[in-house]
Amino acid sequence: MSPGAGVPGQTAPDEAMTTLMKATELSYSEIPGFFQVTFDIADSPRKHTIYMRSRAEEYNSLKAAEAFGIVWESTDAAPKELLEKAFTYRFKAGGLAYERPSEAQNLHRIRYRLHIDPRRDAKQVRELLAIVASTSDFMEKELNGEEDKQ
User: Does residue 28 belong to any structural domain of this protein?
Assistant: First the structure.
């Protein structure tokens, strides 16, 4: 799976984000526009790959980098029943997003995403990324059955 495109015109990670990812002590790889991390899911043989944008976005005093896991994808649009099932879930942090095909990627997707302030300390970021992975894996099972797609 590919996450799609990063921020247009900004494929190189910014230095602060790279420093933060190194400080988390997670094993990650860099792909254009993203850091990619695969988590082992606790008490399970399952794994889930998540992506964190390698450049934070800013608005006034706010700063955030989107982290997400893909929970469902298909070449066909999501059926109404699947959308109703997915979007009735409520989360204490983060939420779901439906992504249509684009120039960057050719699939319909549902992603669990969480915006992370990169000014948090590395331990908190590591914990938040683990939440993204475990929640994404849970939603993947809910929407696709037990098969581990990640």
Answer: yes
